[in-house]
Amino acid sequence: MQIELVPTTAEQLPLIANLYQYYAYESSDWEEEDVETDGRFYLHEPHLARYWQEPDWSANLILADGFIAGFLLIERSELAGIDALEFADLFVLKRYRRHGIGRALSERVLCSGDEAWLVRFHPQDNIAAAFWQAVLPGLLRPSRQVALDDEPELINYLITPAAH
């Protein structure tokens, strides 16, 4: 299976917003979210638009053999004292799970370039917790758990560039 990470343009915001509905659905049980009166999960569109407006922010499609398999949202961390890119939201459609796509992309993205990366997830998100507990120890870069005050319930890992 050929896996590609393709940056999107602002014209593809509706596509990412549509895919985000599946992401929101999957977390709706542990986040205790209900749909809005239009039958969709809430999406803060001004925040979503930032992925095409802010430096070091990007919304990327994941393609598997040319078909849309999910998305990856990347942000520049805005936390004081953290100079890192944040692996904000990774979503792989169920059809493409258990094929190593998330692992391959995580390793490729987190281990390339000279940037430090921040990975954060809710402990109630069993899928994300199991995924990151499996992926982080195998990275070719050092990762360490860090405590951050902005959302104390989150589990946070800082992945730093390898020393040269």
Could you walk me through the main structural features you see in this protein, from its secondary elements to its overall organization?
It is built from four helices and seven strands. It has a seven-stranded mixed beta sheet with strand order 1-2-3-4-5-7-6, sandwiched between helices. It has helices at 13-31, 45-49, 101-110, 126-135, and strands at residues 3-7, 58-64, 67-76, 85-92, 117-121, 143-146, 155-159. Strand 6 (143-146) and strand 7 (155-159) form a beta hairpin. The N and C termini lie far apart (33 Å). It has one domain: Gcn5-related N-acetyltransferase (GNAT) (Aminopeptidase, 3-Layer(aba) Sandwich). The protein is α+β, with helices and mostly antiparallel strands and 164 residues long.
Provide the spatial order of strands within the biggest beta sheet: 1-2-3-4-5-7-6
Low-pLDDT segments, ≥5 res: none
CATH topology: Aminopeptidase
* Residues in helices, as a percent range: 25-40%
- CATH class value: Alpha Beta
Averaged pLDDT? 92
For the sheet with most strands, the description reads: 7 strands, mixed
Using only C-alpha atoms, the radius of gyration works out to 16 Å
